Amino acid sequence: MIEMKDVTKKYSNGVTALRSIDVSIKQGEFVYVVGPSGAGKSTFIKMMYREEKPTEGRIVVNGVNLSTLKDRNVPLLRRQIGVVFQDFKLLPTLTVYENVAFALEVIEESPAVIKKRVLDVLNLVGLKNKARMIPSELSGGEQQRVSIARSIVNKPKVVIADEPTGNLDPDTAWDIMSIFEKINDQGTTLVMATHNKEIVNTIRRRVIAIENGRIVRDEQRGDYGYEA
């Protein structure tokens, strides 16, 4: 599903964020990406949805070579990938329903399909009864649920989450993780960057640890491995 081969990323300010990264993630895997702040995790994550391009190396996601992908084709790629952010990135004037539906409207899906899919995913994340509310009327956890619903309404094969529980209280973070487990159980590949030691050590999955731009550990059913 995701493959990086000899990937290096150097920024224009001289910082080398990633160095000779080799990694392969199979369809249906659930992978945590961990490491100290500044280790290169965010760059690693952003590479997967072409927010950043490698300076060297090759990245393939769902059969698409991101290293040679033309900029005009990036929106098409992102329709096949769900992305969940720490700060939700919801449209503040749209309702919950409209925020999720927007992802389908931009690809000109039919109204009937939009209604069914949006209601299905809102039911999955437990927000069907709040479809008419706007983001400011929701808690942080509820806003993150909307963000997750929006990320999966296109039925992507891979969901990429960058610190999705970082702004949430512990109980809400566990609720969000239960949703991610449901998504993964349905066969969706899930890659999640996190600093949450308790979650990683409790919900055991594959762990990729990055330090100084290099993968220093890649373990099935690994642990967090750092002080919280």
UniProtKB/TrEMBL annotation:
Q: Does the keyword ATP-binding apply?
A: yes
Keywords of this entry? ATP-binding, Cell cycle, Cell division, Cell membrane, Membrane, Nucleotide-binding, Transport
Q: Could you give one GO CC term from the UniProt record?
A: plasma membrane
Residue ranges occupied by any ABC transporter domain in the UniProt entry: 2-228
Query: SMART domains from the entry?
Result: AAA
Q: How does it assemble?
A: Homodimer. Forms a membrane-associated complex with FtsX.
Q: What does this protein do?
A: Part of the ABC transporter FtsEX involved in cellular division.
Identify this protein by name.
Cell division ATP-binding protein FtsE
Its gene name is ftsE
